[in-house]
Amino acid sequence: MRVSGGYMTVDLKSLNLNDLYALAQLVQRDSLSAAGRAIGMSRQALGKSISRLEASLGVQILSQRLPGRGVEFTETGQLIGRAAATIFAGLQISLHFALDTDDAALGLAAITQVEAMLVCLKRQMINRQGSGDAESSLGVRGATAWDGVVNET
Q1: Does the model's pTM come out above 0.85?
Q2: Which fold would CATH assign to domain 1-85?
């Protein structure tokens, strides 16, 4: 993670999507045991996954855990987990529509709404940042889905 233009950025290539998915499940279930069962991991393996994600992002995701009290997230951890859960839910829905041709029109409409939301978010970021280099500040390099979705500024 690095600072660019006042924003923290992450090299997306360095993120392990399995670790991010584990965090998404943990935020949704608020229990190491329940999240582990949902994704077929032991509590210990899930804890290691979260530790790797913390190291990769350079932030603390979980607060001190007290036995018998469940999981306590830092504010940053909660936000990252909710964002990850939203992204994976969107991916699951998009894959459903892509694989089910009967729902293709509905799928296209749903994906178009997500793309429109990303355009709005990019504009807000550019306005707050005061520059047109939002892709750089997000740590996104080269041709990506981001280019096709939000190059309208």
Answers
A1: no
A2: Arc Repressor Mutant, subunit A (1.10.10)
Distance separating alpha carbons of residues 47 and 65, to the nearest angstrom: 11
**Rounded-to-integer distance, Cα 61 and Cα 80, Å:** 8
CA distances to 13, 31, 52, 73 from 28, in Å: 25, 9, 19, 12
Report the C-alpha dihedral over residues 129, 134, 139, 142, rounded to 10 degrees.
-160
The per-residue pLDDT string of the chain (153 residues; one tens digit each, 9 = 90 and over) reads: 444 555 556 677 778 999 999 999 999 998 889 999 999 999 999 999 999 999 999 899 998 766 666 789 999 999 999 988 988 887 887 777 777 767 777 777 777 877 777 777 777 777 766 654 444 444 443 334 444 444 443
In this structure, what is the dihedral angle of CA atoms 21, 23, 28, 31, given to the nearest 10 degrees? 130
Q: Which residues of 120-152 are buried (b: 16+ CB within 10 A; e: fewer)?
A: eebeebbeebeeeebbebbbbeeeeebeebbee
| Span(s) in the chain for CATH 1.10.10.10 | 1-85
